[in-house]
Amino acid sequence: MKDAFQEVDDSLLHIEREMKYLNEYQVVIGFFGDEDSQLLEIVRANEYGADIVPKKGKYLWVPSSYAIKKYGKSVKPSDIPHLFVPKNKRVACITENKELVVCFYLLKKSRIPARAFIRKAFLDNQQKYKRYVLAGIDKICYENGTGKELLTTLGKLGVSDIREEMKRWYKPGNAPLTIDNKKGVNNPLVDTGSLIKHVTWKILPIGEIK
Fold first, then answer.
1. Could you tell me which residues come within 8 angstroms of residue 183 by beta carbon, excluding any fewer than 6 positions away?
2. Which residues contact 85 (CB under 8 A, 6 or more apart)?
3. Which of 24, 87, 139, 146 has its CA 20 to 30 A from that of 66?
4. How far is CA 121 from the centre of its chain?
5. What are the pLDDT tens digits along the chain (210 aa)?
6. Which of 187, 173, 198, 157 is nearest to 30 (CA)?
């Protein structure tokens, strides 16, 4: 059996080892990908806002709900036969049953307003995170807990908080045209469900974010 001195020594070594771990590793919560990945472009545009301008030509061609319903979400002008732009109009149309049907809206730019859901999730919950850190350190000191367990708990908690913030977001919502094209959905952060699925966490060496 270990004597009392050996138990204290083992306990101190354990605490020293786990504190060293916490000084060397961090939990990073959010979205991961290459710097120029489409996912990170979408996240940055929502978090900080962005202006979308035409890469070619004078206008952005934004499909109408009619075009999306008939030709799919990825519809392009070339997909629709007999498409034309009426004089002095910023729409592209076809004629159907002797009436003009709008297939695209022509915009000089589209503004995505800032929706700082990541920063808001952290600010709203930072006191809670401090309590979890203190509880995790107590567990290391008195219950043989580990630094990895603490960072894992914080990672899972942070992901959950960001997802909840995304679900609650409503202002600024989608533009009226976007709402129409998305069948009335007015939460830009969860309307397709794709973005919210990509929130995750990693344990990395301090100073490294990949």
1. 65
2. 91, 92, 93, 106
3. 87
4. 12
5. 557 667 777 889 999 999 999 999 999 999 998 877 888 988 998 899 988 888 888 999 999 989 988 998 889 999 999 999 998 889 999 999 889 999 999 999 888 888 899 999 999 999 999 999 999 999 999 999 999 999 999 999 999 999 999 888 766 555 544 544 454 444 556 555 678 899 999 999 998 766
6. 198
